[in-house]
Design brief:
TAXi_C, binds 2-acetamido-2-deoxy-beta-D-glucopyranose, 6-stranded mixed beta barrel, alpha+beta, hydrolase, 2 domains, Cathepsin D, subunit A, domain 1
Length: 492
């Protein structure tokens, strides 16, 4: 008996020592997850909140601690959040976009995506009505596009902060002389007359004709110069119209792309958050990904940081095969259309329990991944299953009022460390991806921390895997290889 007691206390001592060691190690290693079992995250609340200052120097890529970003990546850019301290837009303007404003813009983007993607039932009779002929009338695509990169345009180059967007194709920037209108931007406005590498494209060129499918609008033609004119509208008040042109694009100081096709915007309006324009990473032939296929082999990857005070990355070029990235095939489902990247969602597990959702729930409307949609939109039946499982796992925390489309919020102001049920997505090919704790919440304040999922209008609407859920994951788009990869712990 005494020896048993001795043995068990020894085990306890040993376990205690081991556990504290483990905890200390985990804390040092990532500061995000304090401890982890397979079913829940135990996290420091502060790890979900942005600090008032940017955690990294964002000029010059090598100073940043992101060991995985460089593994075989050809070209790497810093990614910063539009509304955080790492964005120079934010420093200059200091106009804080409110959380309900951000979420309302997100609603507009989802409306726009749903309008671009015909539902399966409608598709039968209206096969020809794809994005070629569907004008993008409702919804603001850009307003909620949250992440920027800085690239150079022209010779000598002008540095421009562009929103990167996997949900659209045309790259454009505001252009001098802003013949009709330019909105306020932080960077100096690019001036083609000062660049030796700029050239117009004529409206008779086949390059010009491609605009119809990329923008949803037929191109125009300037009366005297016969320059090709593009027009793209994203919503009620957001648009860009100008010359479709060739120019040298400096992705980094050493990596340039000659004759890059872009829109030189002479009439621009909308909520572009002070950015100079947009870089389109969609699937259409005029997207950045397709235009740079010879150089980067249609492969890019990014990591969106856990909070707005951290810096992520956007890399172009083949990632070295790394064992921690798991791949799911891009879906050929019609949801993807010409621009979007489709994927198959087959199940969701919350806190160790697989949700009772039939696989047809997800396949009915299909699914896409989007860098510009903030909140993941699920079929309503899937959302209610996820919500009740999540609420059950969070039942010890006091609830807080809802925020726009987010109806499951908590007041965590009394806590330093929280225990959060793990959300695991299962994708086509049996790939499972653990979302980070930061990928489960939209944090308005410590008093209002909300489950960052929302239901679609009905089960036939396309499911959208949004950017909160992608936080800290390395997301690899191997477009040539037809597959999408997820790696846990891609950035902080
Ligand atoms: C491009 O076309 C515009 C519009 O006609 C014209 O003003 C401009 O001079 C042209 N630029 C070049 C480099 O040809």
């Amino acid at each position: 008996m005494p020896s048993l007691l001795l043995a068990s206390s020894l085990i306890c001592v040993f376990l205690f020592f081991f556990c504290s060691l483990e905890k200390g190690f985990a804390l040092q290693r990532t500061s995000v997850d304090v401890d982890d079992d397979s079913h829940q995250h135990v996290v420091l609340l502060t790890s979900l909140l942005p600090s008032p200052t940017c955690s990294s120097s964002i000029k010059g890529s090598k100073r940043i601690d992101r060991p995985w970003a460089f593994k075989g990546m050809k070209t790497t850019l810093d990614v910063v959040h539009k509304h955080g301290p790492c964005s120079k837009q934010n420093k200059a303007k200091r106009t804080q976009t409110s959380h309900s404003e951000i979420l309302n813009l997100d609603i507009e983007r989802v409306k726009y995506i749903h309008s671009k993607i015909p539902k399966k039932s409608e598709e039968l009779g209206l096969k020809q009505l794809d994005s070629t002929t569907l004008p993008a009338k409702s919804g603001s695509l850009i307003g909620s596009g949250n992440y920027f990169v800085v690239v150079g345009l022209g010779t000598p180059k002008t540095e421009l902060s562009l929103i990167f967007d996997t949900g659209s194709d045309l790259t454009w920037t505001q252009c001098e002389p802003c013949a009709k209108s330019c909105y306020k931007q932080q960077d100096q406005i690019y001036d083609p007359s000062k660049s030796s590498s700029y050239s117009n494209i004529t409206c008779t060129s086949s390059l010009c004709t491609q605009l119809s499918t990329a923008t949803g609008n037929d191109p125009g033609c300037a009366s005297t110069s016969k320059a090709c004119i593009y027009g793209i509208q994203y919503g009620d008040s957001s648009f860009s119209v100008g010359f479709f042109s060739h120019e040298r694009l400096s992705v980094t100081d050493t990596d340039t792309v000659d004759n890059f096709l872009f829109g030189c915007g002479q009439n621009n309006q909308g909520l572009f958050g002070g950015s100079a324009g947009l870089i389109g990473l969609g699937r259409h032939p005029i997207s950045f990904v397709q235009q740079t296929a010879a150089k980067y082999h249609k492969t890019f990857s990014y990591c969106l940081p856990s909070t707005a005070s951290n810096v992520g990355y956007l890399s172009f070029g083949a990632a070295r095969a790394s064992s921690y990235v798991k791949y799911t095939p891009f879906s050929s489902n019609s949801a993807a259309g010409t621009s979007f990247y489709g994927l198959d969602i087959t199940g969701i597990t919350v806190g160790g329990t697989k949700l009772p959702i039939s696989s047809s729930t997800f396949s009915t409307g299909g699914a896409i991944i989007d860098s510009g949609t903030v909140i993941t939109r699920l079929p309503p039946t899937a959302y209610s299953a996820l919500r009740s499982a999540f609420r059950q796992g969070m039942s010890k925390y006091p609830p807080a009022s809802s925020l726009s489309i987010l109806d499951t919020c908590y007041d965590l102001s009394g806590y330093k460390i929280i225990t959060v049920p793990k959300i695991i997505f299962e994708f086509g090919g049996g790939v499972t991806v653990d979302l980070a704790a930061a990928g489960s919440f939209y944090v308005a304040s410590v008093k209002q921390v909300c489950l960052a999922f929302a239901p679609n209008g009905d089960d036939s609407d396309v499911t959208i895997f949004g950017n909160v859920q992608q936080k800290t994951l390395q997301v690899v788009y191997d477009v040539g290889g037809g597959k999408l990869g997820f790696g846990v712990g891609g950035c902080k």
